[in-house]
Amino acid sequence: QVQLVDSGGGLVQAGGSLRLSCVGSGFTSSMYDMAWFRQAPGKDREFVIAISMNSGATSSAEFEEGRLTISRDNAKNMVYLQLNYLEPDDTAVYYCAARQSRSSVPSYRAARYEHWGPGTQVTVSS
Length: 126
Description:
Number of strands: 11
Helix content: under 10%
Distance between the termini: 41 Å
Number of helices: 0
Strand content: over 45%
Largest sheet: 7 strands, mixed
Structural class: mainly beta
Shape: globular
Order of helices and strands: EEEEEEEEEEE
Radius of gyration: 14 Å
């Protein structure tokens, strides 16, 4: 059974940084895309960034350069999201997601992701 556990959220002041982690179990990560989505209060869930655990290729929503980085550790079935220069608008629940994929380019579509973590809250104060 595939399970994802995301963590690392918290309260941070504007301009600060956080590193989110997601660990997967029950699957071989090299055959998967893993992604981060977020959902702010009163808003739809939106795509943040994804990585092909096979090729390492990434897909990202538009963010200013240096604001976020995704990385992977296939041996540990883990993916990380480094968030920098956080702004109050980044406040949201951040979700890790995984989908089995043979493509070298990860998908940005939430509907294509089969497995989801419970989410981790990121709150940015002004």
